[in-house]
Design brief:
This protein is of the alpha+beta class and 546 residues long. The chain has four domains: 3-95, no CATH class; 158-200; 260-440, no CATH class; 445-545, no CATH class. Helix content is 58%, strand content 8%. It is built from 23 helices and eleven strands. It is globular, with a radius of gyration of 29 Å. The termini are far apart. The relative contact order is 0.06.
């Protein structure tokens, strides 16, 4: 293990001791390790600052340890139902109240990035930040044309600090992977690798600007979500300038209620926005803690969401997205066998698992939560129980879904605060059902096939060559040197078969499928006619040459 990784582990232990937090580990294997480390670190024996509430001490420790730990605190702060209230309230301060770096330093960084004095760009630039988070902080400003904007400035030295903490996470993941069979199932190194990709993406504000623009375009015709306009000409990798949002932070629930906001509609719209982003757009905001979500209440009966901070955006592989949609719908319909089959088909559970046993396990978890309001259920608990149940079937963590799971937890936490009686099942079911119908509509299928036309044409172009190889290879004695050489040369083009006739049939079926696929791209009857004629012609040719 690298020396700086060891030193970082010691620094973490010192922070826990200094803020009087080692008791948080009591009852776990880590408590004994922390006590041992304290004994081996004499300089920490008298270092203990246990003043203040336990929530405040935990928040201060996370702030001291840096952005990776602050991000963790932000994530769990959205779940006050899973944390003691005093801890949740303190960790919520990590969302936008992290101690800032000096405003004068931020101004200097912006001027250097834009390569010109600030007065040539802004008529006003507030040196006191509006908000400060773990990666960057935001300042209010005004452009020369009078537009109100915010300027996001990356904290200096972030990449080096994050790289150091990631080394620690990789070292711990490797230990778990090496020495724990149970931990290995969690794929710890893959999880850290996914987190590494995500957090380094946050350090590129030009990427964030592009993310914001894409999300704004996706919701251009949807009034439920407002996305600020980005001023690309004033964006750099460490500076981003965008329209200022004037709204109420979603965590100010009492203020929203006092203004007469329709809380039920607000909560339902939040669910609708989430599922629309994930399934219709396949591009979703994956950092939806209260510091990043505002509500515009110009019309309290029709409140609108406004999003900021687009550093973490998620996408899904089309196959994963389809399986997720089918899983959700199967759960909504209480078709637990289908859920089990989908887990096997997707590869999330090995094919050796027994479907009937999985069906029974999933039913025992999902059935009790139906017909209950959000106040009486927790998706976090349900997912943990589901994962616990699937462990006996060797179910494995899917790192590519971690962002989605994190966002779903955030959505649940927000919905619980806004409107505890929200029925997330009834809200989400029609959205998913409509999306699935659209996916299978003939016109949409035709559009997807049309996009694949270049691939089909490339396949069609290579098919005559593949057919010639098959025919020539099998028109010669099987043991001749030429036949063996040709078979070896083109084994990557023609699939193996047990005899000459089977290979000819396989080749003809492949050719026929290609021609039919191309024919499907052409208008109506003409496409089918050409596909049928071409297929017959190919089959006859193969038989004659065979």
């Amino acid at each position: 293990m690298k020396l700086r990784v060891v030193m970082r582990l010691i620094a973490i232990q010192r922070a826990l001791v200094r803020h009087g937090l080692t008791d948080f580990l009591r009852g776990t294997p880590l408590h004994r390790s922390a006590q041992l480390l304290r004994v081996l670190s004499p300089w920490t024996w008298l270092q203990s600052d246990s003043q203040g509430s336990r929530g405040a001490r935990l928040r201060l420790a996370l702030e001291e340890l840096g952005p990776v730990f602050i991000k963790f605190g932000q994530a769990v702060s959205t779940r006050p139902d899973l944390l003691p209230l005093d801890i949740a309230a303190e960790l919520a301060k990590l969302q936008d109240a992290v101690p800032p770096f000096p405003g004068e330093q931020a101004q200097a960084l912006v001027a250097a990035a834009l390569a010109r004095p600030l007065q040539e760009v802004f008529t006003q630039f507030d040196s006191t930040p509006l908000a400060a988070a773990s990666i960057a902080q935001v300042h209010a400003a005004q452009l020369l044309d009078g537009s109100d904007v915010v300027v996001k400035v990356l904290r200096p030295g972030m990449r080096e600090r994050i790289t150091r903490d990631l080394e620690v996470m990789y070292a711990l993941a490797s230990l778990v992977d090496r020495y724990s069979n149970e931990g290995r199932r969690l794929r710890p190194r893959d999880v850290v690798r996914e987190y590494e990709r995500t957090i380094f993406d946050e350090l590129d504000l030009m990427r964030e600007a592009a993310n914001a623009t894409q999300l704004r375009r996706n919701f251009a015709d949807n009034p439920m979500l407002k996305v600020p306009l980005v001023h690309f000409d004033l964006c750099r990798d460490n500076v981003m300038v965008m329209e200022r949002i004037h709204g109420i932070q979603i965590g100010e629930v009492e203020r929203l209620r006092a203004l007469g906001t329709d809380m039920r509609k607000l909560a339902e719209n939040g669910v609708a926005i989430f599922f629309t982003q994930v399934f219709r757009h396949n591009f979703f905001h994956a950092d939806m803690h209260p510091g990043n979500i505002f509500v515009m209440v110009d019309d309290p009966a029709n409140p609108r969401y406004a999003a900021v901070d687009f550093g973490i955006m998620g996408t899904l592989d089309p196959r994963d997205r389809n399986y997720l949609a089918e899983n959700f719908l199967a759960v909504f319909r209480r078709d637990y066998r289908r859920v089990a089959v989908l887990h096997i088909e997707s590869g999330w559970v090995p094919a050796t698992a027994r479907v009937d046993d999985m069906e029974s396990a999933i039913r025992s978890i999902c059935e009790p939560i139906f017909d209950k309001p959000l106040r009486d259920i927790s998706f976090g608990v349900v997912l943990l129980r589901l994962f616990e149940a699937l462990r006996r079937f060797d179910g494995r963590i899917q790192p590519q879904l971690i962002l989605l799971q994190k966002t779903l937890f955030n959505i649940e936490g927000l919905g619980r605060q806004l409107y505890p009686d929200l029925d997330i099942w009834k809200t989400a079911n029609p959205i998913l059902a409509e999306w699935m119908r659209e996916q299978h509509h003939p016109m949409n299928v035709a559009k997807r096939l049309w996009k694949q036309l270049p691939d089909w044409l490339a396949i069609a172009e290579s098919l005559p060559t593949a057919l010639r190889y098959v025919v020539e290879a099998h028109s010669k004695p099987q043991n001749s040197p030429d036949a063996r050489a040709q078979s070896s040369l083109h084994s990557d083009v023609v699939p193996p078969a047990t005899d000459r006739g089977a290979k000819l049939v396989a080749a003809s079926v492949t050719l026929l499928a290609g021609v039919i696929g191309i024919g499907l791209q052409l208008p109506w009857g003409l496409g089918w006619l050409m596909a049928a004629a071409g297929g017959v012609w190919l089959l006859v040719g193969v038989v004659r040459r065979g």
